[in-house]
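Trying the structure run again after the queue cleared.
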Amino acid sequence: MARRAAPQRDETIGVAMDALRRIVQILRASAGAAQHDFGLTGAQLFVLEVLGAAPGMSVGDLAARTFTHQSSVSLVVRRLVQRGLVVKAGARDDGRRVELRVTNAGRAIVRRAPHVAQRRLLEGIVQLPARDRRRVADALAAVAAHMGRDHAPAPMMFERRRGGARRRKSA
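Done. C-alpha cells:
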C-alpha cells in the first residue's frame, strides 16, 4: 500500500484542525456534563431545551428547528418519552398530528441546565453571513465525503444509535 505524502505546510489547515478540535472538545464536555448532572445525552438535553421553548411541535418541526434528520430526532424523542420527560399527544386542531410537550420533570431539568453546546454551535453557524455558511457547509460536506460518511443521516451529536445514555452507577 502506497503512503500518502504529508500535506504541505499550510497555516489554514492548522487553524481549521484546531477549531474543529476545540468544537469537539466543547461538545464532549457539554455532553459529559449533561450525562453527569442529569443522566441525559447532550442531544437529549438539546431537544428538551428546544421543545421547552416551543411546545406543541411535531417531530418534523423539531427536526427542522434542530437542523437534524427526522429519523435521528425521532430516536432522541423516543428516549425522552421513555424517561417521562416528554409526552406525545394528538393536536387539538388536527387529531392526525402528534405534538410533543415537555413534562414537569423535563421542564425542571431545562430550568436547571445550562444551554447545551449544540445550541451554541447552531447559534454560531446561524449568525454567519449566508455566503460564509455556504462555504462552511460545502467544506465540511467535502471533508465528511472524503472520510466516507456523506450518505447516511447523521445522528444527533454524541447520541448512540442503539442503547442510549449510560446510567450513572449508584454510589
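The domain at 23-147 is CATH 1.10.10.10 (Arc Repressor Mutant, subunit A). Worth checking whether this holds up in the mutant runs.
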